[in-house]
Design brief:
This protein has 352 residues and is of the alpha/beta class. Helices cover 36% and strands 17% of the residues. It is built from 12 helices and 15 strands. Strands 10, 11, 12, 13, 14 and 15 form a 6-stranded mixed beta sheet that branches. A hairpin with a 2-residue loop joins strand 1 and strand 2. The radius of gyration is 20 Å and the shape is globular. 48% of the residues are buried.
């Protein structure tokens, strides 16, 4: 078994490093490149997850809640604006390690409202509504606005998605990277850095296209399952739903998801999964040890020893793809996930 998430990471890191550089080149207005984007006009109003957020000028201090949110801000060259971060699943992208070490980590998981406000931000950016939203575990958006602090929630967590029923929410439409590109464009407008945003989006789109081309086209009915974790190792598993970010990865590559529910990460029994007999199992890797099956080694040990799962086609042929958990969330790392699974499909000989 190959650790494909690390392998893909080596290939893509350089392209991320180039994004800010290419943005700078565009901004210089070279004669052989298009004119720079028009500057943002303030005050600027952004419609965001059911609220209108007004910016009189670019924010100066951000608290970022959610690793995926933080990595988008890093990718746009906004590290110097970040006063604090929270909610981490694993290590930051390698190219941002040095910058990340300089920034205060308020909490590995949910920060307190007081700790966020204590950084005196003028913008709180959240990856998920369950942290900052109607039932926010950190606070409701109104609590921040009452203190004159703007909030922004990733469109990927609210467009065609319902987060009022607990758990990870219900997604009514298939997630697509267009929601991440919307987030990048909106941040680019908020901070008046549109050229950087355009360069980042172009890079992500090219990487996706290259990954699809590498497997020679759509693969058809190969059944694949994404296993994030389980509360109990032998219990029901958190498996990617039909409209999740992993579902987008599967559709992009052209293979079939074994789950048909609209829940983002439904709990599914292994007997039900066995009926679909997946050819490939994508296993989340993470530093977090919140649940019994967070450790990928524990996942694989269970799969190989359990009398039901040991008979699965993917297990008998050891078709396990280790994928960073962040690539299974709606973030810029979803592109990493496409590259990782494409590499796995090729290595297993399933693209032939």
């Amino acid at each position: 078994m190959i650790d494909f998430d690390r392998l893909a990471g080596r290939f893509v890191a350089f392209s991320r490093i180039l994004a800010p550089i290419s943005a700078t080149v565009v901004a210089l207005g070279s004669l052989c490149t298009p004119a720079a984007a028009a500057p943002t006009r303030y005050p600027l109003e952004i419609a965001n997850c059911g609220q209108t957020v007004r910016f009189e000028k670019p924010p100066e201090k951000i608290v970022s809640i959610g690793q995926g949110m933080t990595e988008i801000l890093f990718s746009l060259g906004l590290a110097d604006k970040i006063a604090g971060t929270a909610v981490w699943v694993g290590p930051v992208l390698k190219e941002y390690e040095a910058e990340n070490r300089k920034i205060k980590r308020l909490a590995d998981n949910d920060p307190s409202f007081e700790s966020v406000v204590g950084e005196a931000p003028d913008l709180v950016a959240a990856e998920f509504e369950w942290h900052v939203g109607p039932q926010g575990s950190v606070a409701k958006r109104e609590q921040f606005s009452g203190l004159g602090i703007n909030t922004y929630v990733s469109p990927a967590d609210c467009v065609a998605k319902v987060n009022t029923d607990g758990g990870d929410g219900v997604r009514r439409q298939l997630f697509t990277m267009d929601l991440i590109y919307q987030e990048i464009r909106e941040f680019s407008e908020i901070f008046d850095i549109r050229d950087r945003g355009d360069a980042l989006i172009a890079d992500l789109k090219k990487r996706e296209s290259d990954a699809v081309a590498s497997i020679g086209g759509k693969l058809g009915e190969i059944p694949v399952v994404f296993w994030f974790s389980s509360k109990e190792v032998a219990g029901d598993a958190f498996i990617a739903g039909k409209n999740s970010a992993p579902a987008y990865i599967l559709k992009t590559i052209g293979v079939r998801n074994v789950v048909t529910t609209e829940e983002e990460w439904p709990l599914v029994g292994w007997e039900t999964i066995a009926e679909a007999n997946p050819s490939v199992i994508v296993i989340a890797t993470m530093d977090r040890r919140r649940y019994a099956a967070d450790d990928p080694a524990v996942k694989i040990d269970f799969l190989e020893k359990d009398p039901v799962t040991s008979q699965l086609d993917a297990v008998k042929n050891r078709r396990f793809v280790r994928m960073d958990a962040q690539s299974m969330n709606p973030t810029i790392r979803t592109i990493d996930g496409i590259e990782t699974l494409a590499q796995g499909i090729k290595t297993f000989g399933l693209s032939q």
